[in-house]
Design a protein that fits this description.
Length: 473
């Protein structure tokens, strides 16, 4: 056996070894590719009945599938061509192997790139089928509807990272936005137009407009909300309740008034809101509400409230501890109730004035909530719901029905519904009273008084009602 002979044999062996190595890796790749493609194809095919009903149009779906198939076809052709070349190399072992190794490297990189792009497409472009989706049920994938990437990212279903159910029993996180967001697409995209990690636009008013018109909940954002330039710490709790807060603790942009003195003044025209025009006048207007003042007769307080807090709490002595005030106001009801050791959260939006900030600066809890949403409380939990100047004669009867049933839901058996100075047109009164009677609550207080300041067309209605226990259902 000559040296040359050994060398050629070795080279041949090397060639064969090289061929086996390359062929083996290609086989591996192929199987990997076909496996992963099979996987996604299989999942495509398996869930096709889901999938077709999920996507906005079946055409898009077919397009996606065609794209995948086309890419797989490209991969297969490339691999076949490369195999041909490899066979040639094998038949001609004298050709430089280092060159072919380079070529193999480029080839592998090419294949990998294709597979990776497919993979990431699958992850980002595709979406997770909602696990609770019933077959044959059509639902638009919200991410496809919007152009702005931040909305698309936000509404996409987020699978749990550990691949199993989380402590809440769901294997993904499902964020939600109000369905009216879709009809206000342009406003919403403006709202979601920001740089991640930067300061948000000064657009709380746009946000509130979206919410009031049914884009509620709004998507979350990944920017820092604007704050007042110089936030001074709030007054201590004893002081803060009955004192106008520091003007610097509020952002006054988008309001007609630029300070609390302006809001508390009697010049209504300049304030930019009409409901509870005197709500910021704490000393003269808010102080006397709902409580018996020293030496006062009931007669000169009736225009403010029909019932006093101590009378209402007396109905259920010591039983009323937590509740909700669904009103337009600055939290005075909650402030007074606090003196009776009752915790009240005040639902409000910023209708022409910084109501939420005012309530918070007084040391009370503002719940920023429109009337569009189901209350964020569980069934049978609250002792009291109080409402004034919010639900009035403007409200649609069917909507009122939905709201009252929702309030009934969160009130506990024996809880009180305090309707405070509901006003409406005289001719509507009958229908509104029927709506309240529908609840079949026990009437503790129930009065109708004519409204004095209008030309005798409107009436006030006030009541304190108790939710019955419904033991037989
Ligand atoms: C999530 O759970 C549903 C059943 O609730 C199941 O059908 C689905 O495959 C799960 N998805 C993942 C990604 O585990
Ligand atoms: C409050 O704002 C009004 C105009 O909105 C202005 O005339 C007044 O001087 C301001 N008062 C204080 C104390 O800043
Ligand atoms: C509150 O109202 C009273 C009576 O209407 C008025 O005299 C007083 O100036 C008002 N307070 C403020 C801060 O404007
Ligand atoms: C209530 O009426 C009494 C007498 O009728 C009067 O002296 C008192 O000033 C009135 N209180 C208020 C707050 O108007
Ligand atoms: C509220 O609670 C405090 C402290 O427990 C107590 O001193 C006070 O009398 C209570 N107030 C009422 C109105 O029950």
């Amino acid at each position: 056996m000559t040296k040359q002979n050994v060398n050629t044999k070795l080279r041949r062996w090397r060639g064969v070894y090289f061929f086996i190595f390359v062929a083996g890796s290609i086989a591996l790749l192929l199987s990997g590719a076909s496996m992963s493609k099979f996987f996604s194809l299989k999942s495509f095919l398996d869930v096709e009945s889901f999938y077709t009903h999920l996507t906005p149009s079946e055409d898009t779906n077919r397009n996606n599938q065609n794209e995948v198939l086309a890419t797989v076809q490209i991969v297969i052709t490339k691999i076949q061509k490369e195999l041909e070349k490899l066979r040639e190399i094998h038949q001609n072992p004298s050709s430089s192997s280092s060159q072919s190794v380079l070529k193999q490297g480029a080839f592998l990189a090419d294949i990998l790139g294709l597979l990776e792009s497919l993979h990431s497409e699958e992850q980002n472009g595709g979406f997770v089928v909602h696990p609770l989706m019933k077959e044959k049920k059509r639902s638009d994938e919200p991410a496809n509807y919007f152009l702005r990437e931040e909305i698309r990212k936000y509404v996409r279903i987020r699978p749990n990272r550990l691949g199993k159910q989380n402590f809440m029993g769901a294997n993904a996180t499902f964020t939600s936005i109000g369905h009216a967001c879709f009809s206000m697409k342009e406003d919403l995209e403006e709202y979601m137009d920001y740089d991640i990690g930067e300061i948000c636009n000064d657009d709380w008013k746009l946000a509130q407009k979206l919410m009031v018109h049914g884009c509620d909940p709004l998507p979350r954002r990944r920017c820092f909300s604007r704050a007042p330039k110089l936030y001074n710490k709030p007054f201590p709790i004893k002081e803060s309740m009955w004192k106008l807060p520091d003007d610097r603790n509020v952002r006054w942009s988008q309001y007609r008034c630029k300070n609390f003195t302006c809001l508390a003044s009697n010049n209504n025209a300049r304030k930019g809101f009409f409901k509870c025009a005197d709500c910021f006048n704490l000393t003269d207007h808010e102080m006397p509400r709902w409580i018996r003042l020293e030496g006062d007769s009931i007669s000169n307080q009736t225009s403010e409230a029909d019932f006093f807090i101590d009378d209402v709490l007396g109905i259920k002595l010591g039983e009323i501890r937590i509740g909700l005030d669904f009103s337009v106001g600055t939290g005075t009801f909650a402030a007074r109730m606090k003196e009776f050791n009752v915790t009240i959260v005040s639902a409000t939006i910023n209708l022409g004035a910084p109501f939420s900030e005012m309530i918070a600066l007084r040391g009370l809890v503002p719940l920023y909530l429109t009337i569009n949403q189901r209350l964020p409380f569980f069934d049978n939990t609250l002792d009291l719901i109080h409402t004034t100047r919010f639900l009035d004669g403007w409200i649609d009867f069917v909507l009122l029905d939905f709201i009252l049933y929702d309030w009934d839901r969160v009130l506990r058996p024996g809880g009180l519904l305090w309707i405070d100075s509901f006003f409406c047109l005289k001719e509507d009164l009958y229908f509104y009273l029927e709506a309240f009677k529908m609840l079949r609550y026990k009437k503790h207080k129930w009065i109708v008084v004519p409204k004095i300041d209008k030309d005798d067309k409107e009436v006030f209605f006030s009541a304190v009602l108790e939710k019955p226990s419904r033991p037989f259902r």
